[in-house]
Amino acid sequence: GQGRTLLILGEPGSGKTITLLKLAEDLITRTENDASQPVPVIFNLSSWARKPQPIEKWLVQELLEKYQIPKALGKKWIETEGLLLLLDGLDEVKVEQRNACVQALNQFMQSHGTTECTVCCRIEDYKALAKPLMLRNAICIQPLTPEQIDRYIDQAGEQLSTLKMALSQHQELQELATSPLILSIMSLVYQGCNLNEIVQDGEPTHYRRSLFDAYIDRMFQRRGTTQLYSRQKTRHWLVWLAQRMTDANQTVFLIERLQPNWLPNRGQRIRFRSESSIFGLIGGLMFGLMFGLMSGLVLELFFLLSNELSNGLIVASIFGLIFGLIFGLTFGLIASFFGDIQPVETLSWSWKVAWKSIKFGSLNGLIFGLIFGLIFVIVGLLGEQTDRLIFGLIVRLIGELPIDEPIVGLIALMFFLLIVGLIALMFFLLIFGLIGGLIGGLIGGLFGGFRGSEIYQKGKPNQGIHRSARNAIILGLIFELIGGLISGLIIGLFFDLINGLVGGLFLGLFFGLTAALIGGGSAFIRHIALRLMLCRKGYSPWNYTRFLNDCTDRLFLQKVGGGYIFVHRMLLEYFALMPFE
Predict the structure, then answer these.
(1) DSSP H or E stretch at residue 276
(2) Rounded to the nearest 5°, which phi and psi values hold at 555?
């Protein structure tokens, strides 16, 4: 019926999520048979805590991220109340944000009175809330009874006979076994064990810790698996991962979502920024020198074919060094001041965004054009032709100076030269500023039309970074060609063919590198720098995919698309509470 809501409560490991999934299975079958029924959709509320907002906006974003539903369609479904919401993990929301999440849910259900909704939560966490959820019905999953436990153990036969004896003699063990998850782990760990290996003195929390310790040891003894990493290293890296996921309020770990703020202290984060800056500067200088030499050879060949002498190799090498320094400093600043690493996994075109980018690019192009115009004017004033012009003017003016008033004539000459220099400077600045603004506006508009976004349905580990590197190369080549052609044509119209060719070559590479840097190259390089630092500090292995797959084989983790989750939240909490040595 429309508007029905349900709260599912239970102890940790009691089967709340399983119950929700079984409910979803039945609801999906109902909707397949009757298209007029609302569509059941499962979400995890832990993602709401990353950016607290109205539930309507969060649902639209989750539909896009988890199910690739366009925002316009998702918004329409929510407004027409065509979804049946199955919300898991209210207890996984951070404690300080949990009451705000409940308030947002209550506001949503008040404004969407006919939307059916189910929420799961641990019972103790729900009791601690300041206000309850405004739900019409509630169920609490009861713990297993002793008869159910015995029946389950009897199905295993003699392998668990000792466990059955231990449970009948020790109340603490029997209380732990009332959880289906714990009972399942017990049946896996205590097969063929003697009584002394099972029964230990201590509190229930000590029993649970010992059980998980035994579970980890047993997983390292699984048949058919090769031990790629030692127990100490595996435990060490899983502890760090669990603690970071808990701090970041994440249930699914994606390698491409590693961020600088995962470094445990501020000093290491600052060091990462400085190392990224140095790395970018060195890489930019090396690339600039290589580009300068290659450009010089091309220019030299061009002039030789034109039967002209030149020193193109020297000039281009110097330009390459300057270009490399600028490029390196640019990347260094990006690595220092940019926040999260944002992979660029998809490329799509938008004319609306392109037109906006043309305006923005024209303004920035005009500013940078004026700056480069000033540099070119200064270089031009030092050139041979300008020197001859200035020298001729000086000789002619000195010849016309009155001999009896040399000081007055010299002052007049200085003012004249100053005025001529300012006029020439303004002229060159205007020309170069217009050219730079035109080129920057066109190229910036074209680049702005490409809107990269993240692929949320991951198929392979670290897919986002791999795609970012590929898109950086694609965009770099595209904008090197487009930028070079447009720049060469505009410069050729203002000057001549040779200047158009040289300017197109240099500016094309500049635009190509800029596009590659923004279109995924920066994310790729910063991710590699972060992975190197995490590996050097001992927080993670270098080959993270192989390690995570090994943990999946040992039933510590479960692979979900291109990401990984702990097999159960209780195991995540077990590792997160361990000391990180």
Answers:
(1) helix 266-305
(2) 65, 30
**pTM tops 0.85:** no
Helix axes of 204-219 and 569-576: crossing angle, nearest 10 degrees: 100
Find, among 552, 353, 336, the residue nearest to 446 by Cα.
353
What is the residue type of 151? Answer: R
Packed helices 204-219 and 231-247: angle between N→C axes, nearest 10 degrees: 120
Contact between 321 and 292 (Cβ < 8 Å): yes
β-bridge partners, 121: 9
Residue 94 neighbours by CB under 8 Å, 6+ apart? 49, 249
Q: What is the pLDDT of residues 147-159, one digit of tens each?
A: 998 888 888 778 8
* Number of CB atoms found within 10 A of residue 51's CB: 9
Query: Could you give the 3-state DSSP secondary structure of residue 334?
Result: helix
Among 75, 427, 51, 36, residue whose Cα is nearest residue 248: 51
Contacts of 400 (CB under 8 A, 6+ apart): none
Q: Give dist(CA 372, CA 490) in Å, integer.
A: 16
| 475 three-class SS | helix
Q: What is the pLDDT of residues 50-63, one digit of tens each?
A: 788 999 999 998 88
Is 139:6 a contact under the CB 8 Å cutoff?
yes
Q: CA 333, CA 154: separation in Å to the nearest integer?
A: 66
Q: How many residues does the chain have?
A: 581
Q: pLDDT tens, 361-409?
A: 555 555 555 555 555 555 454 444 444 554 455 445 445 444 444 444 4
